[in-house]
Amino acid sequence: MTLRQYEYALAVAEVGSVTAAAELLHVAQPSMSQQIRGLERELGVQLFARTPTGLVPTVVGRAFLREAQVAVSASRRARATARAAADELEGELLVAVQMGLGTQQLPRALAALRSRFPRLEVTVFEEPNPAELERLGRRGVLDLVLVAAPCEEGAALAHHLGDEEFVVVLGEGHRLLAADRVELRELEGEPWVRFDRDSALDGVLRDALRDNALAPMTVARVSQAATAVRWAAHGMGVTLVPASAVPHGYCHLARPVFPLVSQPVVAAVRRDPGPAEQALLELLLREDWCRAVPEGALTSASSARE
Length: 306
Known about the structure:
Elements: H1 3-15, H2 18-25, H3 29-43, E1 48-51, E2 54-57, H4 59-85, E3 91-98, H5 105-116, E4 120-127, H6 130-139, E5 144-147, E6 156-169, E7 182-183, E8 191-195, H7 200-211, E9 217-222, H8 225-233, E10 239-242, E11 254-258, E12 262-270, H9 275-285, H10 297-305
Parallel strand pairs: 3-4, 3-5, 7-11, 8-9
Antiparallel strand pairs: 1-2, 5-12, 6-10, 6-11, 6-12
Helix pairs in contact: 1-2, 1-3, 1-4, 5-9
Organism: Nocardia jiangxiensis
Keywords: DNA-binding, Transcription, Transcription regulation
Domain HTH lysR-type: 1-58
């Protein structure tokens, strides 16, 4: 039996389906099915029963899963602590990030972490829906989550890293590129490249448009901030993204907005964090989360006007 099998079983119990659990943990469905069958075969018991509403744990399964949750958490922390004491931190660190947050800061922090602990395996995935991140946090699967608001009270330790400002991205040659800061009301009548309706990014954009009495014409919806920036750059419409989410080569098309649009950046770390989580948190706290303008944006704009 392996800890990975325990985590798979816990995920199936959470969502009631092997397929949904595989999507949740970003693994192949056949692989998860094989691991669950192997676990049941080794234990000699049936962990799940099939019902009209999905898979539910059996009586024996519920008892097993209670101990599996304890084992997964304890084993990960014990292994990490032992290795850290020898300055040879290894094991697996599971990190989730709300789509669009820390696009520049998180990779820098993770690169520094891996440089310090090259035997540490880090798994990162982005999730556009903050409700899904909160659900994962409650299950105790994640070691650190980067979100715009802390998880439910008691589920994790929240650390406010800073506030990230949003910028508007305009197409090449757009009339408002001459300004160093764009007033949102000046975007009246502009077509918008937006995000999936249940995503946090679209929630910020929707609130900003409403607060400034703008009735947007939505021309496209995308799931990635980088895609929205590229489409806006090619004249599809304008978009609003966190400053750090503007890819290299597009900063000259990004402008801060007035009134200010920003959101807090919070690192939610599991209670009783291990040394890997603590090390990553320290690196994230050193990052600059409050840069109002993407690096090089105004310089590029000024050069273009000269």
